[in-house]
Amino acid sequence: MSAPVAVAPEPLIRVRDVSQTFGASRALHQVSLDIYPAEVVALLGANGAGKSTLVKILAGSQIPDAGELWVDGQRRHFASPLSARRVGIIAVHQQVNDGIAPGLSVAENLLLDELCQPEADFWLNRKRLLQRAASIAAGLGLELPLEQPIERLGQAERQLVVLARAFALQPRLLILDEPTAALSDAEAQRLFGLIDNLRSRGVAILYISHRLSDLQRVADRAIVLRDGRLAGEFTARQLPEAVEAMLGQALESHVYEPRAAGREVLTLRAAKIAARTQAFDLTLHEGEVVVLTGLLGAGKTEIAEVLFGLREAAVGTLQLDGVDWQPHSPRAAIRDGVFFAAEDRASQSLIGDFSLRRTLTLPFLERFTRGGFIRNRAEANAVQAQVAALGIKTSGIDVPMSALSGGNQQKVVLGRWLLGQGRVLMLDEPFQGVDVRARREIGQLLRSSAGGRATLVICADVDETLEIADRILLVRDHAVVAEFPRAGLSRATLVSALAGTDAQAPATVVSLQATPRSRASA
Amino acid sequence: MPDSSLLLSPVPARSERLLQALIRYGLLWVLGLILVFFSVAEPAFLRVGNLFSVLQSVSIVALLALGVTLTMAVGGLDLSIGAVAAMSVMIASYVMVVLGWGAVPAVLISLAGGALVGLLNGWLIVKMRVPDILATLGSMFLVIGVQLIPTGGRSIAVGMTLPGGDEAEGSFSAAFLAIGRARLWDTVPVPVLITSVVALLVWLFLERTRIGRLFYAIGGNEHAARLAGAPVQRFKLLAYVLSALLASLGGLLLAARLGRGDVSSGNGLVLDALGAALIGFAVLGARKPNAFGTLVGALLVATLLNGLTMLNAPYYAQDFVKGLVLVLALMFTFGLAHRAR
Q1: Domains and CATH numbers, chain A
Q2: CA distance B292 to chain A (A)
Q3: Which residue pairs, CB below 8 angstroms and at least 24 apart, start in A232-237?
Q4: At the N or C end, where does chain B have fewer CB atoms within 10 A?
Q5: pTM score
Q6: Which residue has the higher pLDDT, B39 or A140?
């Protein structure tokens, strides 16, 4: 691939100092970048780095707080996705099912955009519709059952329909968010062929993916976002460096105080999350903080879901405190002292209009209940105590959760489960949407309260992982593939293990596994 | 752009505080104004007897509305309550008039029938995963149809001719009729007493008990409630059973007041009850189903209708007035509250 930057002097898209804040958190901070015609730009960033906000701004579904957007040398203000679409910016979002209309046929889905045009014909001409759809599908080399309802298609075919729809709009900038997530290898190869084709016709493509192999195949250069800021631009050959930039530079060094691991609390043996995935073991010890890390989509959450009774493993045995144990629901898991704070606070932990007090006491309301009635005083006292112990900043315990910052909300969620004093506490990405200060405080709280229980934290961020872990498990393809003790682990080792491409992975993994095995048997 | 930062200004303007007060107390003011207006326009309105007749007229609808409030609290909706009340009227009448049994079995069998419909609703929603509105709409039609079968579609009255040609020999027992017609100390109608007690119990349940709190948690975010260990399915089922039981109780009061098993008696109740519960969203700015609001909603509509009737407003204006109050209340709840943010 030739260097496209030199070829095209005039950028198609010019983003200047774009900033966006949501409430107390800053999603984007003065981001500037250029995208030229006929190039594929990879956009990299960890969870919460601001990728999706940037995409939304480009696609017109989010109006930035500050900054400028230029298309073809003209300043633009997008009021809606439609106005972005008018200048040729088309975004294909990661959620495949957001892009299809159930109940319509495959052909109708392919032509949805045309059908939505106000100048489209009032009457549907079935024959013409099929012809148009057939020509779109043929132009992309797709064979689709055009007259079937879209529900008959699998995820991969739906993804192809959504992509074909976008291609048919003749975009000038096409934004693809994890387009290969649902595709098999052969289909992904076909997609790359289509992308090459578009690029040769002068279309710019912004490609978001965590699959390094994809990026190496299609990207001309990479732009990296971290914590809402531009963390660098890299050429195609520098992709490993780009991944390291995505994972971030080491923060100030943090003193690691090891905790002695106690007896085994929870063990998962010879487990397979799904029938096709690799088998693995997992053991959690009392007093120890274990971090499950791995790139997005590695299957970290799925492992925690098995332990919390939300998902049944295909194979494997589970023991809690040495006794065979099988939770069939979150309720059963909680009863036995296994707690889980799910990843997305707003949709999985918080209840719409519940106050701090109600949110905090929800799982263990029995403690403050006599004869079925809630003892207000006892509840308030416990909440006050927890607010003080965790340093939650709030004007009172009856304020709505929306009045708290992300960090304080997360402390409430943490405090909720600390109230239970369980055997196992699992937290999925507890630092998401939490500012740096609160991050550190929550990490400290987790470590200082870890005695007497086993703690499992899911965390994709290297620095956060190193800050709180006693032991780190690397997850890839729904299985734990490597294990590192925190003591003596360098950041670089962990980063290279995380960024390891599939080709080099096996070698690394074998050598890494030697260490933990010997430790576990000791 | 810069203008969006202006919206974030933290100083609460006077107009904003007024808006907040309007959202919170708006409907209570309206109720107060209505009371003042009618007592000035028609002094007879304020007589104890008339006030209790307002309460009596509202008691049955309020019972059903309290039931639907419970299902709304878990994030659902029960459209079958009117049909269940009508069924309860028919069951009680059938048991007493056709079978010739007493008041106690009539009450118990009616309530059991209601509970059964509640279980059906809950099962459809929880186990079959039918959306709540569709499930209860289906069971509404089912129940409306089922209650017509034993009598061949006719109303049940004392001395009626049965499909076999015999004459029905039973009658409504005096004890049963007293539920709907008697007055305590010659002033407080028994239905008003029953509804007041039920309202107090529902209020206590939703506001003060653990299960009530979990009802709201399920209604607010079912997934989060499940992850926090709430027995979501069991409590949703419970809400539908309680709702159907309250609807049955409402039907019993209606049967006792009418003294006959009128097939069309329960039809108008659903919409009135739903309306009352929805108006309740706006009371005290709750923005959620709540027992106190539901009661105020039912009272508001009943007072308005009673006053208008005394002022000789035409009967056909009733639905218009109810609709107006409901739309205003929904504006208070959703429109203004949204703008105030």
Answers
A1: 12-88+171-246 (3.40.50.300), 99-169 (no CATH), 264-354+421-521 (3.40.50.300)
A2: 18
A3: A233/A33, A235/A3, A236/A1
A4: C
A5: 0.77
A6: B39
